[in-house]
Amino acid sequence: MFPAAALALTLIPSVAGPLAAPAQADPAARATVTEDPGVLAVSVPATRKAPGYTVDIATDELALTTQRAGEVALGTARGDTGGLRFRSAGHWQHATEVTDWRWQDGVLTLTADTTLDGATVTARLTPTADRYQLDWDVQGGSPDQLGLAYDLSSGGHWYGHGEAETPQGGPGVNQPWPLDTGEVDHQTFGPASYNMIDPFWYTSKSTGLHVDTGDVMDVALNKGGDGLGTFTVESPDTYKATVFVESTPLEVYRDYIGIVGKPSKSDATYEQYAKPLWNSWAQFYTKVDQEKLLDYATDLHDNGLDGHTIQLDDKWESNYGNLTWDPTTFPDPKGMSDKIHDMGFDFGLWVTLWINLDSANYQYAADHGYLLMDAKDTSKPCEVTWWNGRAGIIDLANPDAKGWYEGNLKKLMDTYDVDGLKFDTRFFDEKCAPHEGHQATDYQELGTRLADEFDLQGAGIRVHWNRTAHEAGFVTRQVDKGTGWDSLQAATTQNLAISTIGYPFVESDMIGGSSSQPPPSKDVLVRWAQSASLMPLMYASTSPVDTNDTTTGQKVDYDQETVDLYRQAIKTHEKLAPYIWDQVRSTLRTGDPIMRPLFFDYPKDKESYTVTDEWMLGPAVLAAPKLSTGATRTVHLPSGTWYDVNHGTVIHGPKNLKGYAAPLGVTPAFVNLKAKGAAKAIKALKRDDVPADSS
User: Fold this and answer.
1) Which of 202, 485, 592, 674 has the largest count of CB atoms under 10 Å?
2) Contacts of 572 (CB under 8 A, 6+ apart)
3) Distance between CA atoms of 297 and 292, rounded to whole angstroms?
4) Which residues contact 308 (CB under 8 A, 6 or more apart)?
5) In terms of C-beta density within 10 A (0-12 exposed, 13-18 middle, 19 or more buried), how is residue 333 classed?
6) Cis peptide bond upstream of 178, omega within 30
7) Exposure of 636 by Cβ count < 10 A (0-12 exposed, 13-18 middle, 19+ buried)?
8) C-alpha dist (Å) from residue 519 to 313, 510, 532, 544
């Protein structure tokens, strides 16, 4: 039975902490709760800054349906799956009939039976102007996991998440966009993950979900084509979620940034935005030595393939974690560094906190208590397996360990004139125990602060899931991609996913891909360089001049056209740098992503919600590079007045340009003539053979 006194109450919601944003504090935002047969309705009226919404709560089976302007915008699953679900004794259960409810001090408290005898669910819904908090617990039944399940179609298309693990090879060669058009099966979605991820998702119907947890999650979207989104926390503790309800996806994104923070600075310099970083990984993998690296740098320099840094990646150390040179492959590292500097490049090194068991530094670190300890036996160091063997991990929460590691890095850099570092691997592993007084989530913050002391040279770093990572303003590099067309396409949609969970300074994986695969074909390499020229930064490795296939040892001969077109892409990006730098400064003010989906700028353009091979670079540039075989493509232009930089013509949108000619030497791009920065973008992108008065 429901308390009769609670049939219709009006209260001003009270909120505390970071969710009390200005829009929520608007005194006009007065929530009401009403009861009809089979449903409770929580109604939040529109304000000057928020559209208003209603949450209908089915009482026969605890399910939540969010509506805006009378239309469904998000709904939990029903039936056998259940919307509020939990695992007990290896079996999934879920909330059923609502048996009691109370509306007090702006919080709706619900009690529901479940499919498990002796277990009940208590849920608390706190509505505010543009979102509501949903916290819930299970009493009885000894659950070990709690999760929310949504009907994906209720929200339209789904985005966010970051780098997604998929049955089709994601995140390396597959990144569905929108997420519901593919499958996501991400069973170790957590703060220590190597993947760039945040527990935030948003929809084409301008709703969003943020799960506030420091535990590992099991996230699945449309797994096996089931049409469901399940967001399961591997913990019996209170499930804490925020559901955003806005008028546009961009406003949902801004709500999330209001919680997790925006960059306080850009870690990369103007030059690092303007020119590529050349990293040795995809060029040599671990088959690198001093002679090869110098030859690599010389060829790039002599062929006018500009860049700000030559960065030596994996396999320069005597043993992993020693931070000393292999004297056989690098007999004169200082002389090598000097020669690289003489060519006008900075010099950088790849480093890791993981120390292999056979390294001299391992025993020293273990003897001094500098390593993370094993979660199951805290009397011994934690041992982890990675792509280079078995290792221990330096405990950054131990000030002495951090000081020792930093001291080794700075000595290395000072001795060999190293300008910056590429930090790789993770800062924590769930097999390890956090330092006393710390949690697993703290290590993302500790790693962020460590890296922030060094020049990352545009290689960026992979930290996430905490405010410090968002505010640090690091460049974000993607997980390694393959070297085929599928990887180029995944690199594009993955940048959209990463940038719209709050990491705006994105770059693709190394141009041409990596993943220990044979070098890319000429067309893939050129198209990748062209697409990267219209992204915030260019991250390069495979040289179009002198490359060997490390899988066969055979030389790869790219022709002169490859070199010329790659050089042209570099020059295009460098000319665009003043416009890009304007976007960097704008992002520091607003938190908005630089590279973003079309619908962030054109939310009423329905077709843009499923475009996978175009993006906005700031407000003025629409990038539509060719990302597949062939010499033509269809370009979708939203409403506006667009300048075609390749033809010097003006096009009025919305319009689909079918069969747009895009031979290998053409990179389709368009400038919104009425957008801020249009003149600067046209100056950078207009082809030399386009008449000066065309615009």
Assistant:
1) 202
2) 530, 533, 534, 667, 684, 685
3) 9
4) 271, 272, 274, 275, 276, 277, 345, 346, 457, 458
5) buried
6) yes
7) buried
8) 17, 12, 17, 10
Q: Of all residues in the chain, what percent are helix, strand and coil, respectively (each to 5)? A: 25, 30, 45
Listing DSSP states for 528-570 in one string gives: HHHHHTTSS--EE-S-SSSEEETTTTEEE---HHHHHHHHHHH
Tokens representing 283 are 């060029």
Give which of 163, 158, 160 is closest to 477, Cα–Cα: 163
Instruction: Give the residue carrying structure tokens 């704008």.
Output: 586
Strands 615-617 and 621-623: antiparallel
Predicted local distance difference test score (pLDDT) of residue 425: 85
What was the pLDDT predicted at 432? Answer: 96
pLDDT at 29: 57
Euclidean distance between CA atoms 418 and 333, whole angstroms: 10
Cα gap 695→686, rounded to integer Å: 9
The residue to which tokens 């996991």 are assigned:
145
What pLDDT, in 10s, does the model give residues 103-154?
999 999 999 999 999 999 999 999 999 999 999 999 999 999 999 999 999 9
Q: What pLDDT is stored for residue 15 in this prediction?
A: 32
Question: 143-168 pLDDT, tens per residue?
Answer: 999 999 999 999 999 999 999 999 99
Residue type, 209: L
Q: Report yes or no: 503 and 272 within 8 Å, Cβ to Cβ.
A: no
Kindly give the parts of the chain with pLDDT less than 50.
Answer: 1-28, 694-695
Alpha carbons within 13 A on the beta-carbon side of 489: 17
Instruction: Identify the CA nearest to 315 among candidates 358, 363, 347, 351.
Output: 351
Cα 117–chain centre separation:
41
pTM exceeds 0.90, yes or no:
yes
Extract the tokens encoding 255: 């709500």
Q: How far apart are CA 405 and CA 447, in angstroms?
A: 12
Beta carbons within 8 Å of 588's beta carbon, 6+ residues apart: 262, 263, 264, 265, 266, 473
